Amino acid sequence: MTKEVIIYTDGACFGNPGAGGYGAVLMQGNKRKEIAQGYRHTTNNRMEILAVIKALELIKTPMQVIKLHTDSKLIVDTMTKGWLQKWQRNGWRKADKTLVLNKDLWERLAIENSKFKVEYIWVKGHAGIEENERCDVISKNAAEMSDLLLDEGYEKGNSSPSNLFEPIVKEEDKQIWFGEFGSKFFIKNGLNKIILTKEDIKELHIEITKFL
User: Fold this and answer.
1) Active site residue 10
2) How many independent structural domains does the chain possess?
3) pLDDT digits (tens, 9 = 90+) for 52-67
4) Which of 156, 172, 186, 207 has its CA at 20 to 30 Å from residue 18's CA atom?
5) Per the residue annotation, which of 91, 96, 126, 171 is the catalytic one?
6) In which domain, by residue range, is 200 found?
7) 118 with 179, same domain?
8) Is residue 158 part of a domain?
């Protein structure tokens, strides 16, 4: 009989939205694996969900028994109280008729979850639980790396209600990098239009005041 897989996951975000990262620890018998990755502009909830997705994507045994630990009550409630199925039936709208945030990630999680027998277990964050604390460390470290990836689902507007003007512009548009977390600002060719999120504006203000 295949031994159950034990998974711990966590997500981190500096600014929320801001630079973020996910971390996960997978264990089966005497085998142990850590995964982590950072993104230049995202949210804490997206990193929490993505950590679960990325961990499940590594499992290759169909209907594997998995015990997945997370300090996100949103994830546990969504996956154990039938919220995900209700959202799917209702066209990705909640009970109050508002759109579900992070639909792109919930759809991916629904697919991965269907492949296995997953038990979702809530653990209290920062409570001294060894593997949960480890996930917290590696997710934060990932968010501080220089090779941060693009969270397309967030930056292109599919899951980002905080964008003030419009989604990310085309790649051929001029790009300007600066700021503590490498925030990216865009100016459209010929229009001189700056496209910023609320957090971008805060960071831009900080950078400008340094020179005043």
Assistant:
1) yes
2) 2
3) 999 999 999 999 999 9
4) 172
5) 126
6) 163-209
7) no
8) no
